[in-house]
Every structure is written in C-alpha cells, then in structure tokens.
Amino acid sequence: MKTVVILNGPNLNLLGQREPATYGVQTLEDVRQLCTSACELHQLRADFRQSNHEGILIDWIHEAGAAQAAGQVAGVILNAGAYTHTSIALADAIKGAQVRVIELHISNVHAREPFRHQSYISAVAAGVMFGFGTNGYSLAISAMAQLIQGEQRV
Ligand code: DQA
C-alpha cells in the first residue's frame, strides 16, 4: 500500500478559526480525518503533516522524493499556504527531489488578491486543485490515485 504525503504549510494549523468565510469551519484535525478516509477508499495510506516553517516543508519534500523513488510513496499533496506565492526554495525542492506533487488550495486563489494569483509551485506540480474548500483534499487524493494507476498495474 502506497502512502500519500499531505503537507500543509503556514497558518493551516488555525483552520476552523481562521477566516471561516474563506477557509470554512473544518479544523485541521477534521481535514486529517477526511484525508485518512479518502485514502482508504483508494487503498492508500495518508501521512498528514503541518508546519509553519519553510525549511521543514523542504525537508519533508526531500524525504517524500526519496520514498517515492523507493516505491513507498505515491506523491505529495501540498497546500503550501502563503509560501506558494513566495517560495522559490520550495519549487526547487520539488524539482530537485523529483517528487510528484499536486498543489492544493482550499480557497479559489484566482478570485482573491492579485498576489495570490502567482504560484511558484504550479510550474513543478503534476496538477493544481483549488476553490473546492476542504473537500479539495479528497478530490486531490482521487486525482493522485488516478495518476499512479498505470504505475501500480506494472
Ligand atoms: C491557501 C491560499 C493561500 O493564498 C493562503 O496564503 C493560505 C491558504 C488556501 O488553502 O486557500 O494560507 O493556500
């Protein structure tokens, strides 16, 4: 059974209390449970993490790349929060680690401030999911399952 690494960046620990009109009322723990169930549906395992620190997210991406190369990890679902719009280092990490990434945002970033329209992650991502609320996590897990389908048959 392969693992989907679900990485959440800065301020996502505040889900549920943070701008509920934009991010909804579900807590990060609710999202963790949603991800665990969505992964089970696809015979995948969820490894769900959150950090407010860019370097820690980079270390986790390197770790996931090595585990993907070893056949243990399907890929990463990455909600990098505001680092999406600023972090060349995160984009370089994804490229360097050769890890499969689905970029995710709870909100529709393109319907928000212009600075949220720019993403350093999109260019190195297999795909992007945004604007579906926290349900986007389960949609992204389905997308990840489809992406690796060919691989798993081999
Ligand atoms: C976010 C969108 C980002 O612009 C913002 O900085 C976040 C959350 C989202 O999930 O919608 O922290 O990634």
Based on CA inertia axes, which overall geometry fits?
A: globular
Q: What string gives the helices and strands in order?
A: EHHEHEHEEHH
What percent strand?
15-25%
Helix content: 40-55%
Structural class: alpha/beta
How many strands? Answer: 5
* Unreliable parts: none
Strand order of the largest sheet: 2-1-3-4-5
Ligand inventory: 1,3,4-trihydroxy-5-OXO-cyclohexanecarboxylic acid
Number of helical regions: 6
User: How much is the radius of gyration in Å?
Assistant: 14 Å
Q: Can you summarize the main beta sheet?
A: 5 strands, parallel
pLDDT averaged over residues:
96
Distance between the termini: 14 Å
Fold and architecture overview:
The chain has 154 residues and is an alpha/beta fold. The protein has helices spanning 20-23, 28-41, 54-69, 88-97, 135-147, 149-153, and strands at 3-8, 45-50, 73-79, 101-105, 127-130. It is built from 6 helices and 5 strands, in the order E-H-H-E-H-E-H-E-E-H-H. The chain has a 5-stranded parallel sheet, sandwiched between helices. The chain is globular and about 40 Å long. The model has no long low-confidence stretch (mean pLDDT 96). The structure holds 1,3,4-trihydroxy-5-OXO-cyclohexanecarboxylic acid. Residues 11, 79, 81-82, 84, 105-107, 109, 116 line the site of 1,3,4-trihydroxy-5-OXO-cyclohexanecarboxylic acid.
Provide the descriptors you would attach to this structure in a database record:
alpha/beta; 40% helix
